[in-house]
Amino acid sequence: MTQASCRDPAASPAFTADCKFASVASRLPETFLAGDSQTVLTTIAFLLAQPYAGHVNTCQQAMTVQLALYAAGAQVFLDQEQFRRVDAEAREFQALALRAPRHYGGEGLAQLVRYVRQHAATQHHLYGLHAGGKSGVDLRTGAGFKAVGTSLPESFLRWAPNCVLITIAFLYTHPEMRTSQHCQAVALLALYATGSQVKITAQQFRSLRDVVQDYESIMGGIGLPRNCQFASFARTRAEDRARIEGIF
User: Fold this and answer.
1) CA distance linking residue 194 with residue 43, whole number of Å
2) Which of 112, 123, 196, 218 could hold 46 in an S-S bridge, CB 3.0 to 4.6 Å?
3) pTM of the full predicted structure?
């Protein structure tokens, strides 16, 4: 899998993270989709995974995020039925974008979702039948407050960092994003750490970091050390990027 590095924001496009799909679609440069596919997919996932990102069905929104991460190389196994379900939700999300007023997305957002679906279909065609070493997925309830990634090997956190981060972001993307602040914060920090082309403020970073540290404490207290390790991995990698960008 192609690895996307944490780039200097001054050297490549950076987009201020906010909560409006208008920014997702309209503030991206025209050449955005021509860039490195992993960076494009993780950037789309970050922008769609933000809290209260629009007046749309958040389950469809969350599954579009999961589909983007699957396309980017998350080490998760989706069987045929699961893949069809996630793609169907993304397809409906794409249709909603086209029906919505322009300031909620419109054709620009639909184009991003179309890109996600095309790359996910290719990923599934090439690697969809290979379950070895991948995490199973529960699309009904998501994860975060039960054991996460139990089928991943013990060496998982020593794999290529972006592969680990993208997988963590997938596993912590909850079907109902607005009800799972801790899971969402872990996913966002993991995506930020991949080098997704977004710029966040020091305040935004501290807010996410505080929530993730709280989650780590909770997981340690209830005896789920691997969950704590996953969150800590995402947080420390995000801190590395934040230091480079001067916001931590």
Assistant:
1) 9
2) 196
3) 0.88
